[in-house]
Amino acid sequence: MKTVAICRYGAGNVRSVELALGRLGAELTDDVANADLAILPGVGSARTAMAGLRERGLDEVLRARTKPILGICLGLQLALESSEEDGGVDGLGIVPGRAVRLRDGRVPRIGWAMVGDDVYWFAHSYVAESPAVTATSEGLAAVVEHGSFTGVQFHPEKSGPAGARFLERCLSRA
Amino acid sequence: MPLPRLIPCLDVADGRVVKGVRFESMRDVGDPVELGAAYSDAGADELVFLDITATLDKRAAAVATAARVAEQVTIPFTFGGGIRTVDDACAVLEAGADKVSVNSAALARPALIEELAATLGSQAVVVAIDTEDGRVRSHSATREAGRDTLEWARECESRGAGELLVTSIDRDGTRNGYDVEQLARIGDAVQLPVIASGGAGNARHVADALAVASAALLASILHEDPARLVSLRAELKELGICLR
């Protein structure tokens, strides 16, 4: 059985991520350093989230990890070098690039959109600009992959069966 | 733009889905988890649960329901009704909801929108606006809120709301069609996604709303019957609406 650690660094919706992985039979642990898969979920705003990670020493633990990390939504953006959000915030720097404010269309960008052949649910106002982008949705970064880090802008834990299949693939690769 | 969304709305009281609160005695129509899961299977893009519990401990009731829904439903859902503070909202989100909806509490104290956005992120903050003749009404549309609808919509956006759920009071429950002109005016006034509510009677009405709004809230048109959502989706696709 694969072990999964979900980074907890403040209030927010980690419950859905926990439930989604529980349904896939993963064993949940608090050991972010050594779990087979570490998940960095997205919570609130970039500045508050980075402060929460630092406060708990999770920034160093994540940078030191060589096993897979999955960043979800803001979790992807936090892994970048910086974000435009909140007047400019330094990220973890695990992945090259930065998060920039969405300019076109309705913002926040909320709803289901295609990534390749699958459709996933998005809810975001910022998006990654990075050389590590490996899949896009409507021209916007949907997946970044760099070393052992995979980041997704969408919410697989809220994307029905397609999202469950995505998480299952992450788990089987870990 | 993401695909247009169809969002069934379920009224919840004391942990059960109910209907007929306004004009008839309240009737129990099912379990929120079972009905929510059935709508999800029928192709709902999101769900809205509106807690109309009359008892004082609304927050505990809302949290318990949100937790049960999150265990079974794997699409996003919004919880509204009785959320007055950031703590109320956090409790519902921690239970597994994705967004909260606020209405009268935001009108009474607009800074609540900023506090919610700062803590939860704008994408989790829906402001529900009940409107008639270009004016906002509060407290389940029973009171004039003393605000112009377009001005309030812009203020919600500048304070950090993530979506506007706009109900046209004079259309609500009539099944005569959404107030498309008003929805278009609000959509033009803000960059936020707008969820259309009030008046859906047939697929053409929903298609017309989706031409000017990002999503359509579906209440009485569904008769609490997930099978109606399946047929509605098919009819909308016939009308050329691209759905998930």
Q: Brief description of this entry?
A:
The complex is a heterodimer of chains A (174) and B (244). By secondary structure, chain A is of the alpha/beta class.
Structural overview:
The complex is a heterodimer of chains A (174) and B (244). Chain A has 174 residues and is an alpha/beta fold. Chain A has a single domain, classed as Rossmann fold (3-Layer(aba) Sandwich), CATH 3.40.50. Chain A contains five helices and 13 strands. Chain A has helices at 15-23, 46-55, 58-64, 74-79, 160-173; strands at residues 3-6, 27-29, 37-40, 69-72, 82-83, 89-90, 98-101, 109-115, 118-124, 126-129, 133-137, 140-146, 149-152. Chain B has one domain: Alpha-Beta Barrel (TIM Barrel). Helices cover 37% and strands 25% of the residues of chain B. Chain B has nine helices and twelve strands. In chain B, α1 (32-41) packs parallel to α2 (58-72) and α2 runs parallel beside α3.
Shape of chain A: globular
Classified by CATH, the class of chain A is Alpha Beta
Secondary structure category of chain B: alpha/beta
Interface with most residues: A-B, 37 and 35 residues
Q: How many strand segments of chain B?
A: 12
Strand order of the largest sheet of chain B: 1-4-5-6-7-10-11-12
| Helix run count of chain A | 5
Helix content of chain A: 25-40%
